[in-house]
């Protein structure tokens, strides 16, 4: 029956939006699955077409970049320390170096910025910890550190507390310092090997973690000034990041639950060489790792395989990596003296999006997610071009791994049932947990 | 007495000495060395004191016979006596004193003290410390579990977590550093001041305040919404009125006016029923309007337009009609509502009209207004018809049940109707002819009479006819009854036929079985089917189509059964052997057993059925494209014609032969399409537990083509939303309602761990 009700098509006021009648009858819009499938396929292809994550390269260092630090208050500012003892402060938006300080004669081993963002600390090879002003010195003033603390041993790492004026250094032992004093508040040791990195927990701020060259990772409690527990892995851990992932020499990364150290929650394996650095974005769903194999990879926290791999022709061994605190960019410093800036999402449009663009983006994202198991889409989404070195390494390691697996199976087959235990991949890499 | 006293003093002294020594817990040797010189002096004194006493006592002292190496009054050796000497016994005075009780207690305490154990080595201690600290820490960390879980399951996470409160500067601050400079600003300021508009916080004039007080917020909102709605409606109606006004169609306006008038009349009638007083008022108003109309020259034929039309009216039908309309309107408007004096007024009105009108127009007018003989006659005839119609209705009542009973009786009724219509036609024809003949010559009453007579005559004839009919029908009825019986019987044989048809296959089957039995003897299953079919066709060539189909099917199954079942071993009767018989018996027993066990379980038949179904399912389906009601009548219970269906039935092309066509005991599924399989998910993905779940997620579309805008937005919300250029800070315990663990917290931990853990548990419970 035809009916004509003005309420259905007349606007109440002139300013109202025109009503656009739509019929959602499913018979009028057939083939929803195939159509969405095609859309998803197109979205996936376009994602790969627009996958251009590399944004900029900041050059200026005269030696390999050894450490990076984020500014706690300004997104654009990045600090970097090189192997020749030079510290540079960069402006990312302008992609320029704002300031360069010759802080040390040797390596700049570690760098950290306190939460206030007015100064920063550096630790060097010459057994000193120096505090510098963030602002450049006025005209005629000399470039000098605010404070210099001369220690007894070499410091290999430094990190600042997230709320209090306290920082921690590591070397022979983990020292906790008050910013105002020249001697440590307390020092904690466990074992005698040199500790390569120390990190504060950003949420439970009294917790620290360190990793030493005797293959162990130690947790400390700052309040009780005692170590808590140690876990010994197969190989040396280079760095830890405190939502607790350890970057290991055995090409893997291990994510732990601090309360149960005997089994890692996830073993992330995709690198083909030692992993040097790891950093989390503030959203905490993924992390980025830098490796000796000249690439950086992005892993989801709950997946063992990486979702993205970044590499360029000129990028050499990546020493340090940082995810910016707006969770949009990744910076990495590498051996060949450059700091590179990457997008965290490869095909993301960086400009301001209109609402339609935004909804289209969201829709495409959801479609990709929905159809991600379909073979064609999966193939396109997974495909990455890799440099030959990495590619061949992967092949080689696959063969090695397969051989090892085969051997295990043979052992299991030809031994008395129960005599050869089946060890899961997660447990395989943990040697011991020491209380 | 004195001696006694001296002894007492001595005892007291020795006790004192002991007390001095004991708490210090000094070795005895040291006191001996020290006490040598001192002791000698005391000894001398004692001796003197004793010598001053009586001789009796002295002797007693000399008589002391304790066997000890060293005899001293300071030390009492227990050697010689059977029981061990206890310190407390020594303390026992002659009479109990309260001061000694405390001393005793102290003594007890000294005795109960054990040796302190060796401290643990440093490593052990550290390890214990570490373990305790680790437990505490892991407990503290566990409080984050619910939050982590919540965030992991969250549909959407929005970062940064804490909303930045935009800092609004209070208006006083803004105003203090601002001055009205331009004339416009000054004017506005003046206005504000006039209205006593306060600049600072409340920002409401006294009037506004009062109004606010008078109305609650909800009321105000409702009021505002109402006003808004009213305004919107008003504007809408205005627009509509404007639109309608602009419509040029006269017809439309006429129709509208008429509708309005009708509406008004209806309302008036209602008003009369409901509220007579107001109705009276309305009536008065109408009367007044009539008076006004009569006074005015509107709708009289005096206007310019009317005059011109009057001239035109001779030649133009439309003009005539227009004038008539106008006049009718005038009449209508000037008509008085009182019923009693209507005729008089009418007459007067007509007279006036006659006077006013030119002749040519008036004729028509009279014709139109006066009692139309055509109309009248038709009315009367109608009435008669009604009577006539009533008559037969009354008459056939006794027959009614008969009519209802038999379908064949419909015909007579139809006959009656035909007769009636014939009668009517003749009547009307006659009337017309009569009218034509005697239109002017005969008066209207006479004509009426003649007509009525004629009608009566006609009626009579009709009734006679009807009677005759009925009689004939009654006569027929006996004959028809038999016919009907026959007719009724007719369907019965048809019904009988159907069971016969149904039965026939069975019969035939039995026959065929017989034949089969015969043929098995001679042909040994050689081409049984075609032969059998041929037989069937021969046997009953006039059989209906569905019967052979059924037969075929059943036949097929039988055949298969025959194929699969083992043929009974042919025994030569000539050589009967007992062993064989025994074996046969055993076999038979076993078979019997199996048969009993799987009595209702025909696997082969099931399989064949399954296969048949699969074959049927895999056959391409015909497409029926007929549209019911297209090119012919449609409606409930109507089906498109067979021709049409045949025409629009798209026959599906016969597919390639099935792979399992020649494999009786195999079903090969040909559904899988290799080309499609390349695009299909082979393994059920991880979080899904059943393929149906996965299919459902795939089949629900998320695009805006299939979903409303709101649903689309909801379906495509991104998992993580970040704000560009904003630093995301790590989550804080305070943000999620926990106390942040600080240093002071730790000190509590160390002091009384039990209580703290309990409190933590409580906190956890609260948050959970």
UniProtKB/TrEMBL annotation, chain A:
Single biological process term from Gene Ontology: decidualization
Q: Which residues form the Sof1-like protein domain?
A: 344-430
Cite the SUPFAM superfamilies for this sequence.
Answer: WD40 repeat-like
Q: Where are the WD repeats?
A: 58-100, 268-309, 311-352
Q: Does the keyword Metal-binding apply?
A: no
The family database entries (InterPro entries) matched by this protein are listed as: Sof1, WD40/YVTN_repeat-like_dom_sf, WD40_repeat_dom_sf, WD40_rpt, WD_repeat_DCAF13/WDSOF1
Q: Name one Pfam family in it.
A: Sof1
Tell me the route in metabolism or biology where this protein functions: Protein modification; protein ubiquitination
Q: Which GO terms describe its molecular function?
A: ubiquitin-like ligase-substrate adaptor activity
* Complexes and interactors: Part of the small subunit (SSU) processome, composed of more than 70 proteins and the RNA chaperone small nucleolar RNA (snoRNA) U3. Component of the DCX(DCAF13) E3 ubiquitin ligase complex, at least composed of CUL4 (CUL4A or CUL4B), DDB1, DCAF13 and RBX1. Interacts (via WD40 domain) with DDB1. Interacts with ESR1 and LATS1.
Protein name from the UniProt record: DDB1- and CUL4-associated factor 13
**Species name for this entry?**
Propithecus coquereli (Coquerel's sifaka)
């Amino acid at each position: 029956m035809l009916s004509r009700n003005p309420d259905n098509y007349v606007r109440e006021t002139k300013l109202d939006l025109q009503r656009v009648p739509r019929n959602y009858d499913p018979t009028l819009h057939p083939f929803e699955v195939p159509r969405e499938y095609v859309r998803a396929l197109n979205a996936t292809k376009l994602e790969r077409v627009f996958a251009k994550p590399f944004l900029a390269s900041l050059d200026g260092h005269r030696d390999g970049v050894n450490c990076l630090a984020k500014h706690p208050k300004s997104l654009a500012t990045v600090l970097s320390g090189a192997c020749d003892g030079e510290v540079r402060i960069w402006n990312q938006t302008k992609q320029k170096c704002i300031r360069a300080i010759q802080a040390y004669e040797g390596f700049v081993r570690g760098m950290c910025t306190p939460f206030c963002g007015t100064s920063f600390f550096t630790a060097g090879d010459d057994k000193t910890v120096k505090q510098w002003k963030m602002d450049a010195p006025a005209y005629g003033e000399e470039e000098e550190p605010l404070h210099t603390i001369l220690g007894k041993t070499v410091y290999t790492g430094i990190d600042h507390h997230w709320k209090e004026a306290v920082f921690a250094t590591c070397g022979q032992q983990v020292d906790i310092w008050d910013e105002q004093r020249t001697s440590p508040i307390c020092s904690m040791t466990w074992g005698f090997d040199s500790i390569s990195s120390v990190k504060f927990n950003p949420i439970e701020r009294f917790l620290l973690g360190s990793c030493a060259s005797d293959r162990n990772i130690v947790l400390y409690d700052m309040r009780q000034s005692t170590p808590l527990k140690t876990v010994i892995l197969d190989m040396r851990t280079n760095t830890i990041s405190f939502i607790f992932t350890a970057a290991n020499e055995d090409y893997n990364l291990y994510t732990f639950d601090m309360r149960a150290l005997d089994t890692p929650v996830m073993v992330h394996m995709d690198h083909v060489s030692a992993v040097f650095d790891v950093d989390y974005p503030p959203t905490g769903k993924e992390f980025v790792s830098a490796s000796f194999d000249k690439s950086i990879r992005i892993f989801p926290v709950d997946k063992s395989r990486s979702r993205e791999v970044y590499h360029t022709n000129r990028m050499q061994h990546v020493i340090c990596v940082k995810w910016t605190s707006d969770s949009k960019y990744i910076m990495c410093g590498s051996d060949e003296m450059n700091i590179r800036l990457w997008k965290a999402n490869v095909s993301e449009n960086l400009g301001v999006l209109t609402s339609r663009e935004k909804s289209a983006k969201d829709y495409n994202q959801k479609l990709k997610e929905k159809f991600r198991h379909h073979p064609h889409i999966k193939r396109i989404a997974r495909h990455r071009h890799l440099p030959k070195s990495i590619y061949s390494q992967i092949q080689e390691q696959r063969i090695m791994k397969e051989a090892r697996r085969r051997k295990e199976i043979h052992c299991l087959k030809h031994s008395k049932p129960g005599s050869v235990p089946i060890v899961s991949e997660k447990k395989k890499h943990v040697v011991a947990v020491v209380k | 007495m004195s001696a006694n006293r001296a002894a007492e003093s001595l005892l007291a002294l020795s006790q004192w000495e002991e007390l001095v020594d004991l708490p210090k817990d000094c070795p005895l040797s040291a006191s001996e060395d020290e006490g040598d010189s001192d002791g000698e002096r005391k000894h001398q004194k004692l001796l003197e004191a004793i010598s001053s006493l009586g001789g009796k006592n002295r002797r007693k002292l000399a008589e002391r016979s304790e066997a000890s190496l060293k005899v001293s009054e300071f030390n009492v050796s227990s050697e010689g006596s059977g029981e061990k000497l206890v310190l407390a016994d020594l303390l026992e005075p002659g009479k109990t004193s309260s001061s000694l009780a405390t001393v005793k207690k102290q003594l007890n305490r000294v005795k109960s003290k054990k040796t302190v154990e060796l401290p643990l080595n440093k490593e052990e201690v550290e390890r214990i410390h570490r373990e305790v600290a680790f437990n505490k820490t892991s407990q503290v960390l566990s409080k984050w579990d619910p939050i982590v879980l919540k965030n992991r399951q969250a549909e959407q996470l929005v970062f940064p977590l804490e909303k930045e409160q935009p800092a609004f500067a209070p208006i006083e601050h803004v105003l203090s550093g601002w001055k009205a400079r331009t004339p416009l600003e000054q004017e506005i300021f003046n206005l504000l001041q006039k209205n006593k508009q306060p600049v600072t916080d409340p920002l409401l004039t006294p009037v506004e305040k009062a109004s606010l007080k008078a109305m609650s917020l909800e009321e105000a909102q409702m009021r505002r919404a109402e006003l808004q709605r009213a305004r919107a409606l008003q504007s809408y109606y205005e627009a509509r009125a404007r639109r309608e006004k602009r419509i040029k169609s006269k017809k439309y306006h006429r129709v509208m006016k008429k509708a309005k008038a009708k509406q008004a009349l209806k309302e008036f009638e209602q008003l009369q029923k409901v509220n007579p007083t107001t109705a009276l008022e309305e009536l008065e108003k109408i009367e007044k309007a009539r008076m006004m109309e009569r006074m005015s020259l509107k709708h009289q034929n005096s206007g310019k337009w009317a005059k011109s039309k009057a001239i035109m009216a001779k030649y133009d039908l439309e003009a005539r009609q227009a004038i008539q309309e106008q006049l009718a309107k005038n009449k209508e408007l000037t008509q008085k509502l009182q019923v009693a004096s209507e005729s008089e007024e009418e007459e007067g009105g007509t007279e006036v009209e006659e006077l006013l009108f030119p002749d040519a127009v008036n004729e028509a007018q009279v014709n139109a207004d006066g009692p139309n003989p055509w109309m009248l006659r038709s009315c009367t005839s109608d009435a008669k018809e009604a009577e006539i119609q009533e008559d037969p209705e009354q008459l056939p009542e006794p027959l009614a049940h008969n009519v209802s009973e038999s379908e064949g009786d419909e015909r007579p009724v139809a006959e009656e109707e035909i007769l009636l219509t014939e009668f009517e036609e003749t009547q009307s024809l006659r009337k017309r002819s009569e009218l034509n003949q005697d239109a002017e010559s005969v008066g209207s009453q006479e004509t009426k009479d003649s007509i009525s007579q004629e009608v009566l005559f006609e009626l009579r004839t009709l009734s006679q006819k009807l009677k005759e009919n009925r009689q004939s029908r009654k006569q027929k009825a006996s004959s028809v009854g038999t016919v009907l019986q026959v007719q009724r019987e007719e369907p019965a044989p048809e019904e009988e036929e159907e069971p016969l048809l149904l039965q026939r296959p069975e019969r035939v089957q039995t026959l065929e079985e017989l034949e089969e039995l015969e043929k098995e003897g001679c042909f040994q299953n050689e081409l049984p089917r075609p032969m059998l079919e041929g037989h069937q066709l021969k046997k009953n060539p006039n059989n209906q189509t569905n019967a052979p189909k059924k037969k075929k099917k059943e036949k097929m199954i039988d055949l298969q059964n025959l194929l699969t079942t083992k043929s009974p071993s042919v025994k030569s009767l000539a050589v009967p052997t007992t062993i064989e018989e025994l074996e046969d018996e055993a076999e038979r027993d076993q078979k019997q057993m199996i048969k009993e066990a799987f009595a209702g379980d025909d696997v082969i038949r099931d399989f064949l059925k399954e296969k048949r179904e699969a074959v049927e399912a895999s056959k391409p389906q015909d497409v029926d494209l007929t549209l019911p009601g297209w090119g012919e009548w449609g409606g409930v219970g109507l089906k498109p014609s067979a021709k049409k269906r045949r025409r629009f039935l798209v026959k599906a092309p016969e597919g390639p032969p099935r792979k399992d066509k020649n494999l009786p005991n195999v079903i090969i599924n040909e559904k899988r399409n290799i080309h499609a399989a390349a695009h299909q998910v082979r393994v059920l993905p991880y979080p899904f537990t059943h393929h149906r779940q996965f299919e459902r997620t795939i089949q629900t579309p998320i695009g805006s083509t299939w979903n409303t805008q709101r649903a689309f937005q909801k379906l495509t919300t991104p998992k993580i939303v970040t704000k560009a250029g904003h630093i995301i800070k790590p989550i804080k315990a305070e943000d999620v309602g926990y106390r942040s663990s600080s240093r002071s917290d730790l000190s509590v931990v160390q002091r009384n761990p039990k209580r703290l853990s309990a409190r933590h548990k409580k906190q956890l419970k609260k948050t959970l």
